[in-house]
Amino acid sequence: MTVLGSEDLGGGLKANFLLENDFDATKDATSNIGSKGGEQFVGLSGGFGAVQFGAPNTPSLDVSNRTPFGTKIGSGFANGGGTGTGKGTASYGVQGLGHVRENNSVVYTAPTMAGFTAKVGYQFNADAQSGTNVATAVTRANARTDVGLSYVNGPLTAVFANYQQSNVYRQNHGYVSYQIGALKATYGFNRDNRLAAYTNTTPSIALGSNLAAGKLTGQNIAADYALASNINLLANVGKLNDKTTNNYDRKITAVGVKYTLSPRTSLYARNVTEKLENAAGAWDKNSIKTTLVGLQHNF
């Protein structure tokens, strides 16, 4: 469900709002992968650019275009709140963490100049919560920053973003794509640094005792080929090199087809294979295979 609106305040200034929620209304904006959460903001736009307050999409979300699957299954992105740790078999993807949006944040988008567009996002420190008033005690979280820069010039697109949370996690990621006739080819990369180790405190999750601090590097090659005006063939191959002492390397291969019925409706089929190397005893699976067939409609 999406409710949005804009009011002309005069002088080129507009007030905007958007309230978006998926079918699972119990999830907030940080539950941002799959059918969870949604973008929510109020803001102003004009000659200065645009500023949004609430839970707007982050500058890092632009990097999700490094695959034709966005942040969905087959992309290699994983849900993350900035820790770089994650939980479960699909917690840390080949492309690193997908920073879609953050609660209690502000995002500024500058006007486009000579093909360049800059974005800056900032999530304010989250207050600590005691175990007295909540189910689980939560320590105070450091603020998060997200800075992005994109460049578009005809068939060439390049995007870079830097996401970090002080003393916890840092990620540099981006991609370069080029349109050659009916084929769009993309190369993407991510350089992640987990600044603090993570210790599992959830016995129900089949996870090793901890994830070590250290660096991880990933890369992918993707393609989107327009077979016809309404049929696209999609592919993505990626690999994550875990350079920590865990050495939990990952690989993903995804192929799919999209059949466009209208500007807002499409059918799709997808086959995804993901492998986790050197993870024996740490995860409950070392190979995940998924086949998807569905109908997508954008309201």
Structural descriptors:
single chain; 299 residues; mainly beta; Porin; 15-stranded antiparallel β-sheet; two-stranded parallel ribbon; 0% helix; globular
Write up what this structure looks like.
The chain has 299 residues and is mainly β. Helix content is 0%, strand content 53%. It has a single domain, classed as Beta Barrel (Porin), CATH 2.40.160. It contains no helices and 19 strands. Strands 1-2-3-4-7-8-9-10-11-12-15-16-17-18-19 form a 15-stranded antiparallel sheet, with no helix packed on it. The radius of gyration is 20 Å and the shape is globular. The N and C termini lie close together (7 Å). Residues 31-36, 80-90 and 203-208 have low confidence and may be disordered.
What number of structural domains do the residues give? 1
In DSSP terms (H or I, runs of 4 or more residues), the helix count works out at 0
Give the proportion of residues in helices: under 10%
- Beta-strand percentage? over 45%
Q: Ends: how far apart?
A: 7 Å
Supply the CATH class. Answer: Mainly Beta
| Order of secondary-structure elements | EEEEEEEEEEEEEEEEEEE
The best one-word shape is: globular
> What structural class do you assign from the helix and strand content?
mainly beta
* CATH superfamily grouping: Porin
Rg calculated over all Cα atoms: 20 Å
* CATH architecture assignment name: Beta Barrel
The major sheet is characterized as: 15 strands, antiparallel
Ordered list of secondary-structure elements with their pairings:
Blueprint: E1 2-10, E2 13-20, E3 40-46, E4 49-55, E5 78-79, E6 97-98, E7 105-109, E8 116-123, E9 144-153, E10 156-165, E11 169-180, E12 183-194, E13 198-199, E14 210-211, E15 214-228, E16 231-242, E17 250-260, E18 265-276, E19 287-297
Parallel strand pairs: 5-6
Antiparallel strand pairs: 1-2, 2-3, 3-4, 4-7, 7-8, 8-9, 9-10, 10-11, 11-12, 12-15, 13-14, 15-16, 16-17, 17-18, 18-19
